[in-house]
């Protein structure tokens, strides 16, 4: 039987932070999820090409987003040009962006678009491969933070936030709500779903039932439901996996299908890339 893989990863205080404290938002279709509340998930960005949503990203500070490496690859295994991607911030319903605001909350902050200045994939990432599936996006201008647009705190491994196995986390995005893309469309309203974080060893044993050589690297983590039914899916790639304490622990990266029993989603483990994230931000900030 053929299985389709789809792509869904600071020391600490040295990260150049924003003037707005990270992680100050409410706790947290995604398959098996539900509509988020307006203004509930403030750290997510929609990445668009030619006006259409294709991946998610997380807000790091006023100038940087964090996403999956495969989100910045073209179909010919080359990195996209920065002017091919836009980031939409403060988005709740995709149908509301671009003027269709008839059913929007008249008092809510409006979504807005920001261009990308620089795309920085991890130096160890190869397009269409799951290893080091992480990239940073430098925005063309500083973010206008508001009640609905705020940065997320990043797991750095030194504060205990890397020890996440056995806990629950929230994944969010505007991706498909089922594996078969012919039976529906991407979610209009931002979805959220609560998933369980598995031990890498347990996750690896699940995947080895269909691929005996499959490994789950230290730089990855697995989250979903053992019985299936809840998972990230197509176009959720690059989006955030966040703990209840408001810390980003994972980036939607890869997996087998969507929400299949026994195959939790595979995420890039943010804490393993703490040093690289700091290096990138400092280098482009001229520090």
One letter per element, helices H and strands E, the order comes to: EEEEEEEEEEHEEEEH
Number of domains as seen in the coordinates: 2
Main CATH class of the largest domain? Mainly Beta
Say which CATH homologous superfamily of the largest domain is assigned.
Answer: Trypsin-like serine proteases
**Would you tell me the structural class of the helices and strands?**
mainly beta
Largest sheet: 6 strands, antiparallel, barrel
The shape, in one word, is globular
* Low-pLDDT segments: 1-14, 99-107
Spatially, the strands of the biggest sheet line up as 9-10-11-14-13-12
CATH structural fold name of the largest domain: Thrombin, subunit H
How does CATH name the architecture of the largest domain?
A: Beta Barrel
Instruction: Name the helicity range.
Output: under 10%
**Rg estimate, integer Å:** 17 Å
**Tally of extended strands?**
14
Quickly count the helices.
2
Question: Ends: how far apart?
Answer: 52 Å
Beta content: 25-35%
Please, what is the average pLDDT? Answer: 87
What topology emerges from the helices and strands here?
Blueprint: E1 34-35, E2 44-49, E3 52-59, E4 64-67, E5 86-89, E6 112-121, E7 135-139, E8 153-154, E9 168-173, E10 191-198, H1 200-207, E11 220-224, E12 240-243, E13 247-254, E14 265-269, H2 274-284
Parallel strand pairs: 8-13
Antiparallel strand pairs: 1-10, 2-3, 2-5, 3-4, 4-7, 5-6, 6-7, 9-10, 9-12, 10-11, 11-14, 12-13, 13-14
């Amino acid at each position: 039987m053929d299985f389709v893989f789809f792509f869904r990863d600071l020391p600490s205080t040295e990260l150049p932070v924003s003037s707005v404290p990270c992680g100050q938002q409410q706790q947290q279709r995604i398959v098996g999820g539900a509509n988020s509340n307006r203004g509930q998930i403030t750290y997510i960005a929609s990445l668009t090409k030619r006006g259409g949503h294709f991946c998610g990203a997380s807000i790091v500070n006023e100038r940087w987003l964090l996403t999956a490496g495969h989100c910045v690859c073209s179909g010919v295994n080359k990195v996209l040009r920065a002017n091919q991607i836009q980031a939409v911030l403060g988005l709740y319903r995709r149908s509301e962006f671009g003027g269709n605001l008839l059913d929007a909350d008249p008092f809510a902050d409006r979504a807005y678009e920001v261009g990308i200045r620089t795309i920085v994939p991890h130096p160890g990432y190869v397009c269409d491969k799951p290893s080091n599936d992480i990239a940073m996006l430098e925005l063309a201008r500083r973010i206008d933070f508001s009640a609905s647009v705020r940065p997320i705190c990043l797991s750095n491994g030194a504060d205990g936030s890397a020890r996440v196995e056995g806990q629950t986390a929230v994944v969010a995005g505007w991706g498909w709500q089922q594996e078969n893309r012919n039976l529906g469309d991407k979610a209009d309203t931002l979805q959220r779903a609560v998933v369980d974080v598995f031990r890498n060893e347990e996750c690896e044993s699940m995947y080895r039932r269909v691929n005996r050589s499959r490994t789950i690297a230290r730089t990855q983590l697995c989250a979903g439901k053992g019985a299936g039914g809840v998972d990230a899916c197509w176009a959720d790639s690059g989006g955030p996996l966040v703990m209840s304490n408001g810390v980003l622990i994972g980036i939607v990266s890869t997996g087998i299908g969507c929400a299949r029993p026994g195959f939790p989603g595979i995420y890039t483990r943010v804490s393993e890339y703490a040093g690289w994230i700091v290096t990138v931000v400092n280098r482009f900030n001229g520090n």
